[in-house]
Structure formats: C-alpha cells, structure tokens
Design goal:
By secondary structure, the chain is mainly beta. A 5-stranded antiparallel beta sheet has the order 4-3-2-1-5, covered by helices on one side. The longest helix has 7 residues. The chain is globular.
Length: 63
C-alpha cells in the first residue's frame, strides 16, 4: 500500500484521547501520523502501520 502525505487513515485501536483518525504528516523510512482529534504525533514503521491500519478515508496529494 502506498501512503501519501495528508491522507486520513483509520486505525484499529483508538488513541487515549478517543480519536481513531490519523493524518499522515511525513512519509520516509518511517511514517509520522498526527491525531486529528488532539494533534499529537506518532511515528511508526511501514510494517507496523500496515498491521494497525483499518482503512483509508481520503487520499492525500503528491507533494
């Protein structure tokens, strides 16, 4: 699966703030996600994200 900046993902488990939607902030060796509810950032590897991602709501733009 290709991950693009600004795409919105839904993860299987919720964040402690209650949010389940995450925006991709940076793509590289690892992927940086930002919680759409509280704004906190989270880094995870591509393999870990592949396991945790439930669905993609919107596709981002290629920058």
């Amino acid at each position: 699966m290709n991950y693009e900046v600004n795409a919105i993902l839904t993860l299987k488990k919720q964040h402690p703030c209650g949010g389940v939607q995450w925006k991709i902030a940076r793509v590289g060796a690892d992927i940086k996600l930002q919680c759409t509810t509280c704004g906190k950032y989270l880094n995870m590897t591509r393999d870990e994200l592949k396991k945790r991602a439930k669905s993609t709501l919107t596709q981002g733009e290629n920058l």
